[in-house]
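EI: anyone free to look at a 718-residue chain?
SC: sure, send it
EI:
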Amino acid sequence: MRKVWLWLWLGLSVLSAGDNIEFYATDLESNSTAVKASGDVLVLYKDFYLSANEAIYDRNSSTLQLFGNIIAMKGSNYYSVGDYARLNMADEERYFSPFFMLDKSSRVWLSSLEGRAEKDDFEIQSGMVSGCDPNDPLWKIFFGSMDYNSETKWTNIYNARLHLYDIPVFYFPYFGYSLDTKRRSGLMIPSFGISSTEGLYYQQPVYIAVDNNWDVELRPQIRTSRGAGLYGTLRFVDSNVSKGSLNIGYFDEKSNYVDKYQLANDKHFGFDLNYENHKVLQRWFGLDLAGQSGLYTDVSLMNDIDYINLSQNDETQNATSNLVLSRINLFYNEEDNYFGTSLRYYLDLNKKSNANTLQTLPVIQYHHYLNTFLDDHLFYDVDVNVQNFYRSEGKRALQGELDVPITLQTDILDDFVNVSYTAQLYGQYSTFGGEAEYSNIISKNEYNPGTFGRLYHVFNAGSYLTKGYSDSAHAIALDATYVKSGVDHRDGYYEDKEETCGRPGAGDNPECDFYNIEDVEEILKLEFTQFLFDGSGEQKLYHRISQNISFDSRRDKLSELENELEYQVSDAFSFYTDIFYNYQRNLVSKALNSIRYNDKKINAGFSNLYENIEIEDGQRYDNYLTVDASYRYDKHYRYFGKYAYDIENSVKKFAEIGFMYSKRCWDFGLRYVENNRPILTQNDVSSIFDKYIYFTIMLKPIGGTEVNYKLRDVLDGS
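SC: here you go
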């Protein structure tokens, strides 16, 4: 035996690969059939790094055995620790006992009595896996068997038992997860819920990723006391400048649930299509254009609002507006001109039919950008719009507009004041089709094609002043705009309907659906704005006061006074208010006030929206209160709550309280939620007041889920 403190390079060939094995050891003994090393043994083979107390290598069988304090690393992805290991270099088979492995990127480890591997595939029997501190793991999953691929980083676990600390909480016969972010097909984390009215809720998403350019997510669900449905999402990337997604959903209600809540539909279905392309004309039509083109599509169709409500288990996360807007926009933009067209379709979920809902299919737009003359003292731009107002039942219209402002401007008083005059040219033409909804309107007055033209005048004077200080800067802006009526021309529809539709409150008259002409009010608009910045350039104060003075004898002399203020009192505390004061009624007609405090521990806010609006048959009051707060007790615990209340109608809109416990390897949360959501019934649009308890558990980095228990559904928030 020779004692050496050096490395011996054995230039042997494994199979026909010609890969070398390098040994480093304190003591090394070698002959024609074997190599034996002991004392701080280090073995390097391909991308394996192996260390042990002793090592024996059999040249004939290409088998390496390691004994005592074994550490095995492959690249930088994982390492294994054990007392005994056997590696067959020819067949790339490995055996470890006991077995411990750590994935460095995800910090997930597993431990078992023994582990076997062939190339990149591992098979482990009777062990446990966790992402927590191995000395005292908060969670661990015991398993009967496991297979793992170190290349794909996909793990399959069989006969798994989840333990929180030492308490068993869940059993599942199979569980698969990935330790990287690569897209791959498989089952996703399910969602669970229990409701006193809907029964047991279970949704099992299935992810299909066949190609890098698209994937599909299917989300079948069952609500045992209500029904079952299927929602799905197709996501795709069709080029480096375009992408899109398609959502489709269907839910079939049980008849007893439909009867109990008097739902308008026993089936809910719909779809959502989103698509954007940033070079659509160049890519689709092969046009050699220097400018920018684009297509944006956001289309949503559904038979009622429960298509949205049922799309996921947490209904508080759904946007449940009763008016759904679908849009398709196409444009081309160059240095001097903009061309665009858009289709807008409004789906009013308060109605059982939208046959008489007015749509704009399409709008065609042209804009000529600002041109200047006379050393930038004279400038103009041009806007042209053509709108097709369409509905399958009722009167339709095709309407064109032309808007050309011509402005002359200069600076006076040593450039302290800028003054300008604008001649505003405006024209509109309308022609009609379809049948009016009420025949008596046709008999009184036909919808004749009409032309409207107008020239009016706008005078403006403004000044912007700044002053710097040692640790702050102050800026103020003063602006005055005077609008003067000029000349109007009317014929056809605009002349026929002027008396009927030109008065206030005529918007509810179907004759006036296409009459959007208002008289030019002779008015003086005054505005004062100021800003305060600190030494670093951050805005500390924004303040604006706006007042309009009317010279029209038919209108009030003074319009509402608006006072808007945003003040960053300190790094943590901010305040915002926007108040409208009505002189004639001697009251505040609208006020939005909010305050917020946000430091490292506390984040709390309060907001109130109040409106007192005059309508045709009286006054309308709105008064909404929203409060939210969160408190971070330490680096692990966060407590939170939110409350929204309709003060005027004495209706609770939303309430939430809960906590979240977070550590490096897991999150656990509990929250109680009350939510008021709209539904469509056989008689009218109503609402349901839901109450939930949500349990959230996240096992990092494997994943987690949220389980909810719906306490009850109450119609109309009662």
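EI: The two ends are 91 Å apart (CA to CA).
SC: 👍
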